[in-house]
Design a protein that fits this description.
Layout: E1 2-3, E2 9-10, E3 20-26, E4 32-37, E5 43-48, E6 54-57, E7 65-71, E8 77-82, E9 88-93, E10 99-101, E11 110-116, E12 122-127, E13 135-139, E14 145-148, E15 156-163, E16 166-172, E17 178-183, E18 189-191, E19 196-201, E20 207-212, E21 218-223
Antiparallel strand pairs: 1-2, 3-4, 4-5, 5-6, 7-8, 8-9, 9-10, 11-12, 12-13, 13-14, 15-16, 16-17, 17-18, 19-20, 20-21
């Protein structure tokens, strides 16, 4: 579904025979990306143009499934491509729909891309196996990948959004407690607050996400720009 500035809705139709369709992101040109799940259980990355026309974004050669979660103003989309055995690999689609593998950290087979900014910088996760801890990563404009550190003492991290060098996500302890974090353009990590996650960030470092209390209450949260 797409909402215009007046709050009017328009259905974004998925692939023929799809049993589930979701749109996750839209750019200023009105181009949206998301997923379309077909009856055979295959997840497909899709893109809708301003008029609602649908394009399937292809997987990497030999892969069987895809998912797209973000698109920037240049029409670059990011997400994942999955192999027949379920291994996910971070990918980028350009405006024409051509797919490129982004790679992973050394000795890692799994990766996912969650966000891309207007400079083409991508963030996501990389991990060695399906059950191993995730590492937050940033892919630079030249395609090289660098790790974004977890908080001291934590064992895992994930980066969900990036804008103009600032990135946000979460850092997770050995007991499974996640805390919202923000990484500076130079890669320094800072805890933003109590247990929770940060999902989006502006170019000056303002972040939004959610935090939880020991009583189980979850609240939408905004963190102001760093001083």
């Amino acid at each position: 579904m797409r909402w215009d500035r007046r709050g009017r809705t328009a259905e974004l139709r998925g692939l023929p025979g799809a049993v589930l369709d979701r749109a996750y992101a839209i750019n200023d040109a009105g181009t949206a990306v998301g997923v379309s799940l077909t009856a055979d259980g295959v997840l497909n990355a899709v893109r809708w143009n301003r008029s609602g026309a649908l394009t399937r974004l292809p997987p990497l050669p030999g892969d069987v499934g895809t998912g797209a979660g973000w698109i920037n103003g240049a029409g670059t989309s990011v997400g994942l491509s999955s192999t027949p055995d379920g291994t996910t690999r971070a990918v980028r689609w350009d405006e024409s729909g051509a797919v490129t593998a982004l790679g992973a950290l050394p000795d890692h087979a799994w990766s996912k891309a969650f966000s891309v900014d207007e400079h083409g910088v991508v963030v996501g996760t990389s991990h060695a196996s399906a059950d191993s801890p995730t590492h937050a990563v940033r892919w630079r404009e030249d395609g090289s990948v660098v790790e974004l550190p977890a908080l001291p003492g934590d064992v895992a991290a994930a980066a969900y959004a990036v804008d103009d060098g600032w990135a946000v996500g979460c850092s997770t302890s050995a007991t499974g407690v996640s805390r919202p974090v923000r990484w500076s353009p130079s890669g320094e990590v800072v805890a933003l607050g109590p247990p929770g996650e940060a999902y989006a960030v502006t170019g000056d470092g303002v972040a939004v996400g959610s935090t939880s209390t020991s009583a189980g209450t979850t609240s939408a949260t905004l963190w102001r720009a760093p001083r």
